[in-house]
Each structure stands twice: as structure tokens, then as C-alpha cells.
């Protein structure tokens, strides 16, 4: 296994302005978070509204992420889908670009069996020489990759980890107890970051870390120093804030806050996503005043 996946990874939003990808804001964002100290970048995830992007935009975003990263942090690209041959074809189309790996979601909507999930990810892994992180998020996909299936897939040399959003703390804790040496478990459940790190997770791929990034990084630093009390204190202000960011569809609340902070030019999303409610906007504005001034 080539790349050790650990620490705080950012699933980048894709800024839009007047219907088009705002590449200038995107490049500024990527540079901002590298400077802040994130351990890796993940473009073209759900947070990046990947289903709403066309092929040309997808390639341009990967190219620009790599140009800004310039080897300073690894880049894992979201490449997934619910038709295995389309995923492997998309991988081949991106092969000329030197990203380190991919994050690939469980096939959604068609609800494959565990055998089908295993066969799918084996096919994806065999279609590339890059590292593969599996993304298990049953509440979006309607299928749950079991720990037995995941540990079977962990035997594949370039399947190096999982973004675990199983929605079951029992399943996640069992996975942490059973994971083999060298296989990374990163939580994708932002609200469970402290809990998962306290139980031995390798890090997180956290949309919420677009906001108050330094506090998320501090949690990780405290755990790395085996300072559990310090990690708990660093997490405390995040515990009530993180759920607000998911009170309406991700990434709408995060984009709103990035816009309010001047980090992107517009809070715009692409249909079918729209914008947050006035009520949530007021709550987030209040949070900005309270939290970011603290």
C-alpha cells in the first residue's frame, strides 16, 4: 500500500457563479486550506456536487486541484457510480492526471448484494494503479457495505482505506477493532470525529472542516499527542456547531458560510440543490459572530 491515508482531509466544495464553475474561487479555496494545514484534498465528492458536473468541468477541477497542490498534499479524486463499467471508463479518462488516488462510493440506487459490492470494487481497483478509498454511506446509497465485505476488499493491494459513514456507531467501532495493519479508517461522519478518533480512527474526511478548520486540526493534533482531555476541549465548541452545517442539504450551509466569510464569490449551488432557508441563514450568521470571534 503506497499512500498512508491519515489526518484531516477536506472534501472541497465546487464554487459556482452565474451557473458556471468559479475556478478562481476554487483555486483560492484549495490554496487557503493547504496553507491552513489540511492533510489532503478530495475534489469531486458529494460536497463538491459531483453529480451536477459535466466531464469537462470534472477534468478541469482535477487539473486545477493538482496545480494548486503542487505535490504539497495528496489529492484523491471522487470517482464512483452505480454502473461498474462507467466507473472504470471514467478512471481511464482521468488516468493522464497525476493524482494519488480515488474515493469511490458504494453503487447507489440499484442496491447490489455484498457479492456485487465486492465484485464492483475489485473491478474498480483492478482498473487503476492508484490507491482506492471506499466510501460507505448507506443513507445516501441504500446499501451498506458490511465489515466482513470491507475487510475482504482490504486484501486488495491498492484498496488502502475507507471513508466510513456507515451511520452505525456499533459497525464503525467494530471496524476499528478489526481493521488490518496499514488499512486506514477515516470517518465521514463529521459529528463523530472526536468519538472515532478516540477509538483509533486514522482521521476524517470532513465537509464541516471548511469552517473553523484550525479547531478540527487541533483535535487531530491533541490525539496525535495522546492528549485526550485536550482533544475533548478542542472538540467542545465544534460539537454543537457541526449539526447546524447539516441542518439542510450539504453543501448549501457550508457554501453560505464560505460566502459570508468572503472565501467564495457566491453561495450558489446547482439544481437540484438551491439555497438555505432564511431561518438557517440567521442561525448561521449568529454562529459566525459567536464562534469565529471567540
Describe this structure in words.
There is one protein chain. The protein has 294 residues and is α/β, with parallel strands linked by helices. The chain is 46% helix and 13% strand. The strands form two sheets. The protein has an eight-stranded parallel β-sheet with strand order 4-1-10-9-8-7-6-5. A hairpin with a 2-residue loop joins strand 2 and strand 3 (20-21). The longest helix has 18 residues, at 228-245. The protein starts with 6 loop residues before the first strand and ends with a helix. 46% of the residues are buried.
Kindly estimate the percentage of residues that lie in beta strands according to DSSP: 5-15%
Uncertain segments? none
What is the CA-atom radius of gyration, in angstroms?
18 Å
The tally of helices reads 12
Average pLDDT level: 96
Shape: globular
Question: Approximately how much helix is present in the residues?
Answer: 40-55%
The total beta strand count reads: 10
Report the end-to-end length measured between terminal Cα atoms. 42 Å
Spatial strand sequence of the major β-sheet: 4-1-10-9-8-7-6-5
| Secondary-structure content class | alpha/beta
Summarize the biggest pleated sheet: 8 strands, parallel
Spell the H/E element sequence.
EEEHEHEHEHEHHEHEHEHHHH
Oligomer state equals single chain
Amino acid at each position: 500500500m503506497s499512500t498512508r491515508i491519515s489526518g484531516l482531509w477536506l472534501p472541497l466544495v465546487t464554487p459556482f457563479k452565474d451557473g458556471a464553475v468559479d475556478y478562481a474561487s476554487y483555486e483560492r479555496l484549495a490554496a487557503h486550506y493547504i496553507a491552513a494545514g489540511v492533510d489532503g484534498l478530495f475534489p469531486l465528492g458529494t460536497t463538491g456536487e459531483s453529480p451536477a458536473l459535466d466531464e469537462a468541468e470534472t477534468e478541469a477541477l482535477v487539473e486545477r486541484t493538482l496545480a494548486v497542490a503542487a505535490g504539497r498534499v495528496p489529492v484523491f479524486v471522487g470517482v464512483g457510480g452505480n454502473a461498474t463499467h462507467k466507473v472504470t471508463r471514467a478512471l481511464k479518462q482521468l488516468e493522464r492526471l497525476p493524482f494519488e488516488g480515488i474515493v469511490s462510493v458504494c453503487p447507489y440506487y440499484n442496491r447490489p448484494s455484498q457479492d456485487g459490492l465486492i465484485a464492483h470494487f475489485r473491478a474498480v481497483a483492478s482498473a487503476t494503479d492508484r490507491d482506492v478509498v471506499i466510501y460507505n454511506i448507506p443513507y445516501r446509497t441504500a446499501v451498506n457495505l458490511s465489515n466482513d465485505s470491507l475487510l475482504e476488499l482490504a486484501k486488495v493491494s491498492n484498496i488502502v482505506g475507507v471513508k466510513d459513514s456507515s451511520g452505525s456507531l456499533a459497525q464503525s467501532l467494530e471496524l476499528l477493532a478489526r481493521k488490518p495493519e496499514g488499512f486506514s479508517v477515516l470517518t465521514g461522519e463529521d459529528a463523530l470525529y472526536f468519538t472515532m478518533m478516540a477509538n483509533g480512527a486514522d482521521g476524517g474526511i470532513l465537509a464541516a472542516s471548511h469552517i473553523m478548520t484550525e479547531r478540527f486540526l487541533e483535535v487531530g493534533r491533541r490525539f496525535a499527542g495522546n492528549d485526550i482531555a485536550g482533544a475533548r476541549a478542542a472538540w467542545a465548541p465544534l460539537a454543537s456547531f457541526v449539526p447546524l452545517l447539516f441542518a439542510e442539504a450539504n453543501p448549501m450551509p457550508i457554501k453560505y458560510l464560505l460566502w459570508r466569510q468572503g472565501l467564495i464569490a457566491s453561495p450558489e449551488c446547482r439544481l437540484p440543490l438551491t439555497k438555505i432557508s432564511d431561518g438557517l441563514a440567521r442561525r448561521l450568521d449568529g454562529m459566525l459572530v459567536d464562534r469565529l470571534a471567540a
